[in-house]
Structures are given as structure tokens and as C-alpha cells.
Amino acid sequence: MNKIVRTLFALLLAIPALAQIDTGSIVGTVRDPTGAAVPNASVTLTNTATGVARTSATNEAGEYQFNALVPGTYSVKASATGFASQQRNDVTIEVQSRPSVDFDLKIGDAAQTIEVQAGTPLLETQTADVGGVVAERPIRDLPLNGRRYADLALLEPGIQKNYTNGNNMAPDRFSSNGNLEVQNYFSLDGVDNNSGSTNLQEGSVQAVQPPPDALQEFRVQTRTYSAEFGTSAGAVINATIKSGTNGFHGDVWEFLRNSKLDANTFFNNANGARRGRFSQNQYGGTFGGPVIKNRTFFFADYQKFTSRKATSSTSTVPTPLMKAGNFSELKQTLSNPGVAGQSGCISNNIIAASCIDPVGAKLLAIFPNPNIPSAVARLGLPGSFTGAPNYQFQYSLPNDTYSYDVRVDHNLSQNNRIFGRVSDYTVDRQDPPWTSDPIAGNGNFATQYRIRGKS
What we know:
By secondary structure, the chain is mainly beta. The protein contains 6 helices and 23 strands.
């Protein structure tokens, strides 16, 4: 096992380092009681969940900074010779956040530590981007139909979705401050997570969609974000998968919906169609913890979504008389064809039996007969055919989707760490045909979708 882990880390080290846009930073200044800068002061940063610590020294201006910090809760401690140490607890780092944590050291014994338990909220004075963070608790607790975390982006000002557009069914397709809906940029753990599609037949603008329970948080930036986000005219949605900690943690879930308590639709009742079947299960779990305490951590999640939803499709099919060559139900008069050998085949909108091709007759027999009550009542009446839908068919739409994510974090040293993640998102669904026989009714874009996204 150790050999496999070492091999994995060696491969990760061989990959060129990319800009980490899913992390945060802490900056600050250390001063003495007179307000003068304290150079060469030691500043120690500790991740509360993992126990991983980093140390830095202030420069001549008394300034320090810690970059590439995993979102979470930290404590910051400053100490210098001749001064009592001072510690700030519960400093929260979010995606792309950059809080300033300053210290005013008091003269005293360096072994003495003054803990600052509360204070004024940390202001974002280091960045000017516009947006907000959706943290772990609202991601977990707010109701989400379908458990799609991107729906929570609608909580931010300037984000809106056009529900009147029937082609805008992708859950993560929305407009930011009037920009086009496909001009947003999705990032997962600092990696491009965009499908690159504009027709969105895969049902999402993202390559993979982790479940809400797997996310530490995500940030929606709508304006004046950093130049490193150079591929977006709309919003930047920056999400990060959870990392393991020194304790083992996880959860399981299942969400069930079905048609037992559903009423039939108005149009089904009007057309004499029964209530359709609906069954939906969404279940999964997460688990994470340490591989080597204070050094190596893992996190994994899995989710399965299965749905069978009845839908009613209407279409226009030939009547029984038409399939026998009798078109007297048409309002217009059919003329005899000018093809040699077919003269006299049509009389009073009726095709002679000798003129009907046997293969064509068998193809027509595949089509179902009209079944909408109002259309059935007009069958056989001359001139009664209007071309309006006369057939209704109920079909159970299948949708099977599963996804998983596996992440490993490893601390090489006090100031260097690496992580690797594998994600898979698979969709298997189908559009409804327009008749009960798929040979005759597989038109109208009745497509079988088998989509697989990886990251």
C-alpha cells in the first residue's frame, strides 16, 4: 500500500503546477505597543481540522502572508523576542478569500500566550471582487430539488434564470448581470469543469456534478474578479471538494419520491388517460479521514439517481380508414397520380386495393389507431380529419445517473502540499417516442443519451 501511495505522489509531482484558484490566503501585520512594525516575528498557522502547521517570518515592514490555503478554520499565532505571544482562533478561510489578521503584541514573556477569542469581523480589504460564498451548512441544509448545488447560485444578487424558455432546463444554466447563460465559468478544485457544450443535450454546463454533501463550499464571483479568471464574461463559480481530516467522518442519505400521493393531470383526465407512474430514488454517501495523521488524508463520495417518470406524448396518426386506403375523412380532394400504370387508382378519395403496395400496407399497420376520445368520436365522418393530435401515449422516461469523487491530500513539508482527485459523472437517459411502437414512433428526437464526464 505504501509503495502505491509513493508512486501516486511521484506521478503527481511530475505534473506541471497549475494556478490554484480554489484556495484562500491570510495576510497581516505584526506591530508593537507603539504601532511600530516588528520584523522577523514568527507567525504560525495551524489548520484546526488536520493539525497541519505552517510557519513564516515577518518582513522589515512587519508583514506576513500564507497562500494556497485549503478552505477551513485556522488559528494564527504571532511571537517575537521580548513580547508575549498572541493567538487568533477561528479564522475562517473560504474559496478565494484573503482576510487580514493583524497583531498588536504586548511586552512580556515570550512563553506567555494571549488568546484572542472574539473581535470585530474580518473585513475583505485585500480584494475587490463582487460575489459571495455559499458555505457547507447552507449547501447541506437548504432544500434542493434534485440535489444540484449550482441552484444555490441564484441566492446571489445579479444571478437570474429564465424559466419561460423551454430549452433552458439545465439546472446550472443561468445569467449573471445580463450576460449570456453559457458565458459562466465553473471550476472544481481549481480545475476547469465546463462541458463546452452550447446545446446542453447532456443536461448540464458542467463536466461533473458532485453531490452537495461532498462540497466544502463554493464561491460565486460576478464582477471585478482576478485576472486569473480569463475565460468568463459572466460569473465564476468556484467549488471545492472536501478534504479528509484527522477524524473519520461521513454520512449517508436517500431521498424518495413516487406517484402514490400524486393526482392525475388535467389533460390526462380530459383525454381519458390514467395517472402515470413516477418513481425517483437518490441515495449515496461520503466518507473521509486520515491515512497518516497530520500528513495524509482521503475523502470519497458516491451518489446514484434513478428515476422513472411517466410522460404523455400526443401526435397525429392515420385513422383505420386511411390505413385501408380510404381518405374520405380528408377535406381536400385527392387527384390521380400522373405516374404510368397508376391512372385511375383514386376515386372519391379512395385508393383501389390493387394499387396499394403490400409493403406499404404493412408499414401503415404498425401505426396505432387514434385514441383521444374527441378524435375517436369523429372517425368515419367525411371531411372530419383536421390534422390535430388524435393519439396520446404514456411513456416511462428512464434516467439513471451516478457519480463519484475520490480525493487524496498529502503534506510534503511545512510549506508544500499536493493533492489528487478523480471524478466521474455518468448519465443514461432517453427522450420519449411518440407512439407505443418504437419502430413507428422513434421520431421527434427520441434520443438515447449515454454521457460520461470525467475530471
